[in-house]
Amino acid sequence: MHNITLIKGDGIGPEISDAVLKIIKTAGVEINWDVQTAGADVIETEGVPLPDRVIDSVKRNKVALKSPVTTPIGKGFRSVNVQLRKELDLYSNLRPCYNLPNVKTRYDNVDIVVVRENTEDLYAGIERQIDNDTAESIKRITRTASERIAKFAFDYAVKNNRKFVTVVTKANICKLSDGLFLESARNIAQNYNLPLKEILVDNCCMQLVQNPNQFDVLLLPNLYGDIVSDLCAGLIGGLGVAQGANIGKDYAVFEPVHGSAPDIAGQNKANPTAMLMSAIEMLNYIGEDIAAKNIKEALFKTLENNIKTADLGGNASCQDFTDAIVNNIC
Fold it and tell me: How far is residue 70's CA from residue 73's CA, in Å, rounded to a whole number?
């Protein structure tokens, strides 16, 4: 029996959470779910979007599966995702991006792993209002954080038989901050028998949309990693199929890349694929490799049978899509 925190989120979060839990249960994995809530709705009752009880739950269980939580734009509370990563020191954001069966995309055979530093850079939230017309954000890069994320990228590459790592920066302009990230990657690379390639982030984006097959593992600071990972998601069918994992020394939180999509909440239209892919990664992380393999094969079979939600060009509801996967497991 595994004890795992479940953060259901808001918008379509509860719907896709229920779908994924049903699939995992069908696969025979015994999990005691410690259900927690976070986000805007919690502020009304507890005063903060991320109560201590949520952090305590993840620390207790070591592993969490999280659905999307809405982040206000330009106002309101700070991202719950960012707070979780900071509080739990989830320094590595891992986003494998590869083609799924029968999901139409511009490119075939895309297989890219984005490794994003997860705790600093502009996402550290160090900002100030200088005057009514000027605001300032501080970009903080440290050697400690840069070297440990570079080590994570190379360790992942070796373990998963990847061919090379490409470090992505804007070190020609941000010579000190991005320069330190680049220097750290170079230092760590010396400990591995694996090539390190270097590219500027603007050129990387252009090259990705021209020929994504030229990349393998991408290593990026926080901001660039956020942007490039969404670009890579677009190469494989969109955010509806993009998985994510936030991994630290002691804890791990697995979550889909997409937002909470409040415009379709409660309408049975949501696509649970991204959260399911994240859950598959979670199952591998906790040693449930057979169940992970069975669920992945059932998902792929469902897609091959042309059972897809509307965002992927199909007409299946969230419930229909979930039931099809469950039937393919059985």
Answer: 9
